[in-house]
Amino acid sequence: MGPRLSKRTWGIIILVLVVAFYSVGTGFPFFFKFLYGLLLLIAMGLAWAWINLRGIEVQLTRTSTRGQVGENMEGRIRIINQNRLPKSWLEVVEYSDLPGYTAGRGVALVRNQSRTWRTETNLYRRGVYHVGQVEITSQDPMGLFRLRRRFLEPQPFIVLPATVPLPDLDPRFANLPSDSARTRHVDQITTDVSSLRNYVPGDSFRRIHWPYTARMNTLMVKEFDLGISADAWVVLDMHRGAHVPSDDLTNNTEELSVTIAASLISRMVELSMPVGLGANAAQNHIYRPDSSPEHLGRLMEALAEARAVGAISLERFIYDLRPNLSRFNTLTVVTPSARSEWVPALSRLKRQGVNVGVVLVDPESFGGPDSIQYTAEFLMSNEIPTYVVRQGQSLNEALRFPLGGPQPLEALVQRTSASRASP
Predict the structure, then answer these.
(1) 312 and 215 in contact (C-beta within 8 Å)?
(2) What secondary structure does DSSP assign to 52-101, as a single string?
């Protein structure tokens, strides 16, 4: 807390110096009386501003310590005057580095009075911020002094990235059964039984289906398939050279990539898929697959603070992630990179049995100079499902079918109708 001098205060100080000079120089009683009056005025103003900040209690409550882009951060601020003297000309401001956050007002309090008001701020940019510190500014009636005092300690507040519902998500992302997918038998025991067969010497007794054995009067064993027991990975490319620089902090390749990754993770959790996250940001984020709600929260928090400032290239990061992958995994890469050096790394994983796919964020739609056409063709030539998302495009529609895949039913119906209508 300390005094902050305004222009009016400086004017009074200069006037005091001038009057003091004339008082000493001339010895006239008028100047001495004028000087004493000015000094008394300054002392009263400083005392008023200082006493105004005594005996104040500040309480701040939040409904949550985190929110999501598009939601509101809500809270309540309560100021209590525990002093017998009234308080006036108080300005109350909550300090925060949250973009667009302004929660302040002027208050006046009588003895033992409290004032409470509700704050609400729209969250439009993901990240980790600090809120909760309140500063009260006191001013004397003459406006000569402004004293400040801060209450409470700042607390972290996490703004999670936005997610988009993906009801029509291509089953390839989760390696789920579809018209083009086949059942994959595995030797391990899983939760999905695909068929029954006769017992063969060497089969584990744990695979025996005892109710059906009793019915058939012969040993019958269960065969298992992968079902949705495989783990899914989402790899988010946060290399600093992959994204298009932009002055718009909420509409760029970085934010769209994070939204895509968050939406994919959210959808796979809805499908009870264990999902993990990898991101080559300022520090590498590697979270092994899990399907618990707590794990989803950890992944969203990691996406909230991830920035496109990573120094490790996408191909290097994929190679480093390889020990965590097996042929029962599905890996989806989200990147705006027009480079093709990382495609062989994915092809190698595909040859090892990992189900891979790529979501390309089109940098040209954000004003970038590079085209992803060659990269997309290179991916398709390696039989890697590739999806392209452009600025302003519906994410659900973009992720329904890969490039070169079947067309949406609506487009097929329109084309059929047009051909029938033509003479």
Answers:
(1) no
(2) HTTTEEEEEEES-SEEETTSEEEEEEEEEE-SSS-EEEEEEEEE--STT-
Domains and CATH numbers, the chain: 1-160 (2.60.40.3880), 187-225 (no CATH), 228-412 (3.40.50.410)
Q: What is the pLDDT of residues 118-142, one digit of tens each?
A: 988 999 999 999 999 999 999 888 7
* Phi, psi dihedrals of residue 354, rounded to the nearest 5°: -75, 135
Contact 334, 235 (CB under 8 A): yes
pTM of the complete model: 0.78
CB 289 within 8 A of CB 296: no
Letter for the amino acid at 9?
A: T
pLDDT band at 105, cuts 50/70/90? confident
Q: Give the Cβ contact number of residue 286 at 10 Å.
A: 16
Number of C-alpha atoms within 13 angstroms, CB side, residue 5?
Answer: 8
Measured at the alpha carbon of residue 348, what is the angle toward residues 345 and 349, in degrees to the nearest 5? 90
Query: 98: closest CA among 162, 161, 159?
Result: 159
